[in-house]
Amino acid sequence: MFAGKHGEDYLSYPMIDHIYNKDVLRLAANISRTDPLKLPDAQASLRSPLCGSTIDVDLQIERGRVSDYSHTIKACALGQASASVLAINVIGKNADDIQNVRDQLEAMLLDNGAPPKGHWKALNALQPAKDAKPRHGAILLPFDAVLKGLRDFK
User: Fold this and answer.
1) pLDDT tens-digit series, residues 36-87
2) Which letter, b or e, does each residue of 107-120 get, where b requires 16 or more Cβ atoms within 10 Å of its Cβ?
3) How far apart are CA 141 and CA 144, in angstroms?
4) 90-140 residue pLDDT tens
5) Of the CATH numbers 1.10.40.30, 3.90.1010.10, 2.40.10.240, 3.90.226.10, which one belongs to the domain with range 15-153?
6) C-alpha R_g of the chain
């Protein structure tokens, strides 16, 4: 049996293939909105201290809602998959909309909550990552960055 430097059993870690499943990899591979905006109304840059993932977002905002969006993310496939789903769905959303989905996603990861529904149901692919706590920061990072950008714009 293999043990980590803190005595944990590697066999107790979630299976990598289960966490980085085909749906996660497909979402990460099809990430969109990566071209920077020319004159963003707001920008935000965040780093997840636990895993080191980073994201930079540019936002165009009209009447409190995202009207255009771009991002640059350096993260594992889980963070990229989360950012991919966000990029597809962020246009037309306000801070309350994004906070609501972020809260649902966090509840799914931490408390076995139901995955987000509707336009956000693709986030269900990240459900196996609930056992990979060091990756939760990367998954939530895109939502936190958009929320920061929306807050800073006000």
Assistant:
1) 999 999 999 999 998 999 999 999 999 999 999 999 999 999 999 999 999 9
2) ebbeeeeebbeeeb
3) 5
4) 999 999 999 999 999 999 999 999 999 999 999 999 999 998 999 999 999
5) 3.90.1010.10
6) 16
